TrEMBL record:
Organism: Rhynochetos jubatus (kagu)
Sequence similarity: Belongs to the major facilitator (TC 2.A.1) superfamily. Organic cation transporter (TC 2.A.1.19) family.
Organism placement in taxonomy: Eukaryota, Metazoa, Chordata, Craniata, Vertebrata
Spans traversing the lipid bilayer: 139-159, 166-186, 192-212, 224-246, 252-271, 346-364, 376-396
Catalytic reaction list: urate(out) = urate(in); 3',5'-cyclic AMP(in) = 3',5'-cyclic AMP(out); estrone 3-sulfate(out) = estrone 3-sulfate(in); GMP(in) = GMP(out)
Name used for this protein in its record: Solute carrier family 22 member 7
CDD domains documented for this protein: MFS_SLC22A7_OAT2
Length: 528
């Protein structure tokens, strides 16, 4: 007997499952508030070189002081990273005149002056992460995603070894501690380290929440559960825009997005361990207790597991046989994902798809100022558009299947990014529409890949599989912010890179098997 047969007896989607899913959605809301926090934490306001006071400037206005000390861009704005070696007083007579010596410019010698009308303080203004130090600013997001990458490996293994719930509690507790330490950072080095450790901890939340909920739900409601859980990511997206709008100081912004981890820890005590995991690891009595609790809450009070009703399925005998090939003393690791032919193909292809999904998603999400909208509005609209995208995917993955939906969502994401390379900058409305469509396709691809991957791997390796794919995805997430630095080579090179990777990785999805209406595999032999 398979676990799905047992779910039919105790209720595969009743009050018990609804309660679990909604509790697990609380930490899900918190994830994008950290994953996309870089947009506001490291925002760089307009700035120019600080100009030391001179007696000759006493009778000049601020605008005139800037005029004679800061070179202009072709569009008339003042340059951010250069100043004249000597004040160009002749420009006061006619600002259209050329400087006396056009080459007499130098890098900022006395720091920078920032526009604080939008942000009270960011890490860019705190530690002058601009101009020559711009790479360190972008690297802050990369450090975070490197942490998420490491956490995917660690928590993928630990949650298969020690259980989903225990590791979820640990990751939430560590997220709170390291998040608060980040807010208290007194140097860039301290911030980089604590943000990396926060990424490690939050990776466990990202990795465990969906499978823990899915393993309690029957086949018919699996897709709905996956989509419901992912909608709360979009809600977190929108909440981030509102929190960032209200909190303009980076220390307190970190406190605001980290605090909800405590609420998640408290609520998680009502969530049971995965009965699938307990059975697969021979913890029969605990699984039996949770199954009876599920049956009672779902109104199946007459449910009992007995030899008379289930000759091959009782606590003393067959619950242990349900562990499939999880024999006592046998352990699984990431190497197991590549030992057999079919699993090897699934692991290689799903890894490529995850890389493309994350690389293009964060490439769009971390570029809020590139589409002609206010950054708070962009963040909110990008969150709003994700919800109808998920609704459409709910229909498509059940009609067209997981494979086709995954492939085309990612390919269309790439095409939308590529389209904005061609559309001229003055067409801001059209560029905004195409960007929003691309963000919708990108989120559709992300929603599908979480659901799809959790169905591809067997129970005994599911968290290892999710950990491996999350590791590859976070590599994509870590590289995405650094690609923005390629605009110094060619202005459109970042967008061309995101487009090419999304289209290529989307095509790889056609090589994966279809999982629509297929039982969740429990052992390796179910895959092979």
């Amino acid at each position: 007997m398979k676990f799905e047969d047992l779910l039919l007896e105790i209720g595969g989607f009743g009050r018990f499952q609804v309660l679990i899913l909604f509790i697990l959605c609380l930490p899900r809301i918190n994830l994008p508030m950290h994953f996309l926090l870089h947009n506001f934490l490291a925002a760089t306001p307009s700035h120019h070189c600080a100009i030391p006071h001179q007696e000759a400037f006493v009778n000049l206005t601020t605008e005139e002081v800037l005029l004679i000390n800061i070179p202009r861009e072709p569009d008339g704005t003042f340059r951010s990273c250069e100043m004249f070696s000597q004040p160009q007083f002749h420009l006061l007579l006619n600002s259209s005149l050329q400087p006396e010596n056009n080459s007499a410019t130098q890098h900022c010698q006395h720091g920078w002056v920032y526009d604080h009308s939008q942000f009270t303080s960011t890490i860019s203004t705190q530690w002058d992460l601009v101009c020559e130090q711009r790479g360190l600013n972008q690297a802050t997001a990369t450090f975070f995603f490197i942490g998420v990458t490491m956490g995917a490996v660690v928590f993928g293994y630990l949650s298969d070894r020690f259980g989903r719930k225990a590791m979820l509690l640990l990751s939430l507790a560590c997220s709170f501690v390291f998040g608060m330490l980040s807010a208290a950072s007194v140097s860039y080095s301290m911030l980089a380290i604590t943000r990396t450790l926060t990424g490690v901890a939050l990776s466990g939340v990202s990795l465990i929440v969906l499978p823990l909920g899915m393993e309690w739900v029957d086949i018919q409601h699996r897709t709905f559960s996956g989509i419901l859980t992912s909608i709360f990511w979009s809600i977190g997206n929108m909440l981030l825009a509102m929190v960032a709008y209200l909190v303009r100081e980076w220390h307190w912004l970190l406190v605001a997005v980290t605090g909800p981890c405590l609420l998640s820890i408290v609520c998680l005590w009502w969530v049971p361990e995965s009965a699938r995991w307990l059975i697969a690891n021979g913890k029969v009595k605990q699984a039996h207790r949770h199954l009876l609790r599920c049956a009672r809450m779902n109104g199946r009070k007459d449910f009992t597991i007995s030899p008379e009703r289930f000759p091959s399925f009782c606590p003393s005998q067959a619950l242990r046989r349900m562990a499939t090939d999880k024999k006592p003393g046998r352990s699984y690791s990431y190497i197991s994902l590549f030992r057999t032919p079919v699993l090897r193909k699934i692991s290689l292809c799903s890894g490529a798809v995850w890389f493309g999904v994350a690389f293009s998603y964060y490439g769009m999400s971390l570029n809020l100022t590139g589409f002609g909208l206010n950054m708070y509005l962009s963040q909110f609209v990008f969150g709003v558009i994700e919800i109808p995208a998920k609704m459409v995917m709910y229909v498509l993955v059940n009609r067209a299947g997981r494979r086709q939906s995954q492939a085309w969502a990612l390919i269309l994401t790439g095409l939308c990014i590529g389209a904005n390379v061609i559309i001229p900058k003055p067409f801001t409305s059209l560029r905004s529409v195409v960007a929003i469509m691309g963000k919708g396709f990108s989120e559709a691809a992300f929603t599908t890949v979480f659901l799809y991957t959790s169905e591809l791997y067997p129970t005994v390796l599911r968290q290892n599989g999710m950990g491996y794919t999350a590791f590859v995805a976070r590599l994509g997430g870590a590289l995405a912010p650094l690609v923005f630095l390629l605009d110094e080579v060619w202005k459109s090179l970042p967008e061309v890179t995101y487009c090419g990777v999304a289209v290529c990785c989307g095509s790889v999805a056609f090589l994966l098997p279809e999982t629509l209406n297929v039982r969740l595999p429990e052992g390796i032999e179910d895959i092979e």
